[in-house]
Amino acid sequence: MTMFHFFNCAILTFGPHAVYYSATPLSEYDTLGTSVKAALVYLGTALVKLVCLATFLQVSENDGFDPYQELLKALIGFIDVAGLFFALTQLTHRNISQNHKFQAVGLGWAFADSVLHRLAPLWVGARGLEFTWDYILQGLEANANLVLSISLAALGSLIWLRKNKPKTLIPIIYACAGIVATMPSITSYLRRGLEWHFPKVVGFELFTSLVMAFISWQLFSACQRPSA
Amino acid sequence: MATSKKSSELLESMYSVIALLFILVACVELCDAAAAVDVYRLIQYDMSGSPFGSRFAALNHHAASSRFPPGADLSRTVLIIPLRELNITFVREYITQKKPLGGLLFLLPEVLSFKHGGNKQVPEKEKMKKLLAELERLLVHSNIPYPVYFAFENDEIDTVLADIKKNDAMGQPATATTGGYKLVIPTAEPKKVASPTITNIQGWLSGLKADGDANQLPTIAIVASYDTFGAAPALSVGSDSNGSGIVALLEIARLFSLLYSNPKTRGRYNLLFGLTSGGPYNYNGTQKWLRSFDQRLRESIDYAICLNSIGSWDNELWIHVSKPPENAYIKQIFEGFSNVAEELDLKVGLKHKKINISNPRVAWEHEQFSRLRVTAATLSELSVAPELFEGTGGLFDGRQYVNETAIIRGVKLIAESLARHIYGHQGKNVQLFADESSLAVNPAYIRSWLDLLSQTPRVAPFLSKNDPFVMALKKELADHADEVNVQHENLEGIFTFYDSTSARLNIHQVASVTFDLLLLLVLGSYLIVLFCFLVITTRGVDELISLFRRPPSRKVKTA
């Protein structure tokens, strides 16, 4: 519904990323380079995923939930995790504390995801005369995605970058990382298999992202105590 | 120097890519309407300089139903009125008192559509026919300064209309600030149709000339006008007026061509078949066609039978004449028809209407013949002469209002009467075109042509010279007649027509501006809260407070 609506949905989708960057100490330590590099890694990962999906996946006629196809998609989704691993460990960052590194990487990752997946539909659709709730829901989904990406980056940095972890927490860390990594498959199952409506799915995503963020924050601070 | 040249080239290519991207981005405008419907515009024409019909085509206004709150300003609103809720007095009041309105959209029941309606029966036929006739009469003779469109009801439009009625009932007519539905028809300004042509098609079937007979054989003419005129020119199929006449003419041509193909059964009369155009406009085409005749040919015409609406009668047909009934020729024709009618168990009546030469109005086609001193009569189911632009194929004149059996009986009547006159069987009870004979009237032929005609709108200004339908009529007549001629003329100057007869309507569901303002407020506060939350959790409350405190002034330091 005209440029005004487009502007509203755009700030809902991309505003939190900018706010996160400026509000937290990330802006003080000038970690923009890290975020940009993480965004480029996301782009590369997305291309690789596209090629794999095109090669291995069959297009089904009905929009139902096919377990075999979904399993394949989940496996390809782990390429995401590999990309994140690459961004966290292999890229040579300047000397930033681990605390800030994972935040910067997660932020860049989420921003690239939002831009690639949501900017085009927003530009094409939200500017028309027709009004739908879809774009506002998409913006909320982008917010949930931001939180999830940061939690995944946190758990990832715990797994790969921190050497001394309390033994008891390791399985929990891996379990949480697994859940967050398979979130896309879970949401697609909800949408196709259980046939939830879009608002319900977005609500579920927001809820789980907050829960996972809380858990990973607790885990991170728990792991931080021995070295502190 | 080389490097700067290279970099400038690179920059230029970059600019072209960026420009292309911008163009691509600006051009992507997908159809995102809640519903898209085919709509048909009210006719727009000038008669002797006076404007009639709907004078605009483009539409971009909010929609309202007939239950709008009284006293609301409707100058930027389109009223959607389905036919079953139509209140003619209300519409008449709006039009005659020239009240401001953004537009009118009439919804016709789907059964009347020749594309989707099929052959389903129309409920309450007579009532609908009367209502549509009245509406058409009102719209065609008024000058309406806003767009008027017709559309057929379907599920999408019904849901939209129900929604609009609900909104109106709550007292919230749609405007820019309260949301609702917007109707958009993006068409250009309607333009005049340049030099509209009317095409007359004539077929000639030669009679048997005996050796040594120097005189011209007498001719009998059978004429029907094939074009229509209605409130919505894209919907004017005129199945009864005059599709029935055309079908009857073609069938009679077919039967007589069978008879005339064998020299032993060829009659001593020539037969002239005429499919004329320009019927609604005082039979302008017929006049021009007759004027183009050779004087000898005109004098050789014994009589002419014009066919006008013979598709929906039960038991009575009328023969309309302009010469007094005492005239010998008229008596002969009428007696011939009555005798055959008696045998076929139907009635034929005679109606006499004098011609007024000073009055330009020509209500029947035979009047054009009579003005040139040719004996003629019109066979029709109508007992009264129609007014200007009435009975010329309007909104209700579709396939459902025509009866094939009526046309078949009419063809039998005319064919037998003609045959008795040609072969001199007056008074004898001989049936040439009996059922089950090789000369029987073919119902399948009649049905297939009637179906075709009921799907072809035929308003003359919108039929080009080489219109495929006109070519089809010519080809069909050429199959039956010895010689076919096509005559192109210009429609007489007092009529001017405008194009843009159909369009596509997009119905958008829009949200109000206040909604977006509220949304902006909510989002702004959400982002501010998020900012404060993050600052507090990562840097501490002091940082947040320090953001709002001014930095300590230099004076303190130096002091």
Automatic annotation (TrEMBL), chain A:
GO cellular component: endoplasmic reticulum membrane; plasma membrane
Transmembrane annotation, as ranges: 39-59, 71-92, 104-124, 144-161, 168-190, 202-220
Membrane association type: Multi-pass membrane protein
UniProt keyword annotations, A-Z: Cell membrane, Endoplasmic reticulum, Membrane, Transmembrane, Transmembrane helix
Keyword set includes Transmembrane helix: yes
Signal sequence bounds: none
Protein name as annotated: BOS complex subunit TMEM147
Organism name: Hibiscus trionum
Automatic annotation (TrEMBL), chain B:
Matching SUPFAM superfamilies: Zn-dependent exopeptidases (SSF53187)
One protein family per Pfam: Nicastrin
UniProt name for this protein: Nicalin
Cellular localization per UniProt: Endoplasmic reticulum membrane
CDD domains the record matches: M28_nicalin_like (cd03882)
Any one GO BP annotation for this protein: regulation of signal transduction
UniProt signal peptide: 1-33
Keyword Transmembrane: yes
Family: Belongs to the nicastrin family.
Membrane topology according to the record: Single-pass membrane protein
Classification lineage: Eukaryota, Viridiplantae, Streptophyta, Embryophyta, Tracheophyta
